[in-house]
Amino acid sequence: MDVVVKHLATRGLEVAHNVLQPNKLQARSDEHPQDGEGKQMSVLGGTIIVCTIVAFAFLLFIVNYSVGVVMNNLTMIETPVEGISIEAPTQDADNTPKKGDTLIVDEVPSIRHLQPKPITNSVRTTMRHLKATAGRWARFRGLKFAIIYGIAHNLVMSILAFALAVPYGASAHHFKVQITLLAFIFQVIAGVIATMITVPLHMAWTHSTIAMPSAKGIRSRLPTKKQWKLLWTPAAVFAVTQRLQALFMEGSKLLIGELAPNASGKQAGIYGVKVVGVLFFALAIALFITLPAEVTLTRMEASMLPDEEDTVVPFDRSFGGKVVPAIVGGTGAVGFWDAWKSFNWEARRRLIKLNVKLWAINMALVFVGVFAIMSSLVAFGGNTTIKF
Question: Residue 70: enclosing H or E segment and its boundaries?
Answer without folding.
Answer: none
